[in-house]
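Input/output pair, single chain:
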Amino acid sequence: MKKIFVFLVISVLGFSAVVAQTEQKSDLKVYYELVAKGQMKSATESAVKAAKHYYTSNLYKEAFDLLRAVDQNINTRGGSASDKAYMHYLTSKERMNMYMRMKRGANVKEHLNLMEAYANASADEATKNDLLYNKAIYYYTFGQAEKGNAIFKQMAGKLTKSKEYDKVDKVYKELLAGARRSGSAGMVAQAYGGYMAWKDSVNALKSADQVAALNKKIADQQASIDDKDSSLSYRQYIIIGLGIVLAALAAALVLGAIVLMRFIWLTRKQKKTIKALNEDNALKAGFISNISAQMQPTLKKLDPAKPEVKALLSFSEHVQTLSSLERGYSDDEEPLEREDTNASKYCEALMDEIRNDVAKDVVLTVNAPAMTAKINRPYVSHILLHLLKNAAEHTPEGGKIWLDYKKQSAHKHHFQVTNTGETIPEEKQENIFKAFSEIHDLTQGDGLGLPICHKMAEKLDGELTLDNSFTKGVRFVLTMTI
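Output:
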């Protein structure tokens, strides 16, 4: 167990090192690209990030060498004196951070002095505030809490004076985070105490600001009222206008309430109507299924070799299947179970079942990759076999039949059954999935095969459609979501 733990620790550390190395290479690449474009400020910021990746991976020499090279580039390409000062501030700050990690206080102090000179030369208030923050961190880290408090108060005072309360709050929170990372309980206590004291003072300042703002608002409103008091008629017009507006608002609210109530009433009525229709359809489906079931014992006593009896038995079974599908459909129904299936082998097996049913020289083709498809085999097999048998029946000699499987996206896939030959007449296309839309000679087929397949597709959270864009025969598409 101990060996496994050690192995895991080493693996995690190794992975972290790889990530750091990748990020460091990316920052270096950006640095060189920006230097080539003459964008030295952005280039320096990227180089500082790369240096941080170096020394956090304990590659201190590489970090120092990189920062030394950056300083040389700043001196030759840095631009104005203030820009150079700002960039030198960044490189000195990163060196200071390295010395902080190594607990070398003298070197940290040396670079803080350099940072102070660069901050003053940069003439940038944000940089000067950052210097104060780093000074405070230095004093807290090396046990000089009183000096840390003094520096931090100075920084907080500057930002508070300019009412940049959010910045002060952010800096205090960074200080607390740094204190916790350092593991110094004294530093955490000092930082937290200073933060709470500042919070109390700022709350008082905010309250004073709010009171002053309210007083100003009251004074402005009073002045406005005094101006309006000079004309009695003007005030009367205002009151009358407000009264009209209030009356209009009241009327609008009443009208809105009436419209809303009517909408709620109509919605409830529609829900009741839909529920009643669903119940009525379920009763009809059950009634038809019962009639069909009662006919079967009698039909089975007749000679099944006769085409008429065979057609009636098939029609009875189809009616019961369709009724069961329609009656069992609901939003809260449990989804059908699906299983992983090799798409290529599955499609080949389906095509084999119709090889003896096709006309002479009909070419059968399967286009399905050797990948896994998650499907409900009973329903999908029923649909595809019905479509393939129809294709075999209506494809002339020398024709072609295809069975294709395609994955359209991560959660959507479809099967296609295509055959050459005559197309379905346009006037019949609209009703091919509707049951009992035409009167059929049952010995020639009852017309319920496609409606049953269509209902099964709905059960699969999918759709069975006729592809109207294919004009050299017939193509059906079974689309399903995974």
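The beta strands are 339-342, 363-367, 372-375, 400-409, 412-420, 462-466, 473-481. Residues 232-301 form the longest helix (70 residues).
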